[in-house]
Amino acid sequence: MSDATLLTEAMEFKPDLADAQRRWLAFWNHELLDRPCCCIRAPKEGAVQAPWPAYMAGAREDPAAVAAQVVEAAAGVFWGGEAVPAYTPSFGPDMFSAWLGAELKFPEFETGTSWAEACIEEWDDWLPLRLQAENAWWQRMLAFCREMRSQFVGKLAVAHLDIHSNMDALLAMRGGERLCMDMIDCPETIDRAMADVRAEFVPVYDALYEAAGMSATGTAGWVPAYHPVRTNTIQCDFAALIGPRQFRRWAMPSLEEEAAHIGHCVYHLDGPECLVHVPDLCSIPGLDCIQWTTGARNAAFGEWMDLLHDIQSRGVAVWVPCSVEELPNYHRQLKPNLVFYDCSAPTQKAAEDALAWLTANT
User: Fold this and answer.
1) CATH number at residue 205
2) Which pLDDT tens digit goes with each residue over 235-274?
3) What pTM value is reported for the model?
4) I want to staple 129 with a disulfide (CB 3.0 to 4.6 A). Which of 46, 163, 196, 306 is the partner?
């Protein structure tokens, strides 16, 4: 990358943005400067600590009020190391399918998520699947991004979304059991449906990118990686229900296209059922880092060191969530040019000390 990629606007909440950008560029190139890439956040010394909006705020609330609350909360954070001030808008995990026409459901009492109601009974009634420009949820998200951008200027970035595209969109619209059976009973229909959703990824990514003004701020993903031009975290949670043959036919082409368009991305690998796909995932150009998520009722993250080593041995970086106390243990065991620490600290001084320790011990 040339230095021209660093010419994004200054951020009040991140005065060392240019240095963070250089470190992020080194990370994406799997190079090492003086320490590993480390996003570390803590309460900002002397600042008022304001609450962040609840998850999915903006889906039903006033977007302007939500954006104002984000600015107030972000002002109280010490964005240390490579942590770039950003906020990810979300109406829940099934936004992509809602933009294709599924009905988005919210619980009567708050449970922390929303879902799309399975709606495809007969494929021929829905194909081709297309994003309709007038879709209410799509228009609301674009307006939300624009509102945040207008209030965030010079302070922080609007992060890209947890999109749940490719097979995850079909999963939400058809249901898991039916979609699995369809791959056996009518695989050519799934080919058609996947061609449709694949065609919508780039227009969706680019429209959100433009609405949020990411060309001026650089791009943060919903996993807090950052690139001065483009990035995000991609995924296919449906991969947990299929084997390598089905994954290579339907999921891999989508993920390859998404990674190619983004340029540098993280992959959200969710649960042990997906581990069979690690060799295929690590072969995708532009998929530079894997965010391993252990899933419910499984061993804690720190007990998966063999998996982290395996991913690094394939030339792919790993995301590591940790506290400042846990950081040295991971640092002793992982390749420093192939890791991205997502770290929390109780105080700004503790965060600064952790960064100094990383530099002194790399």
Assistant:
1) 3.20.20.210
2) 999 999 999 999 999 999 999 999 999 999 999 999 999 9
3) 0.96
4) 196
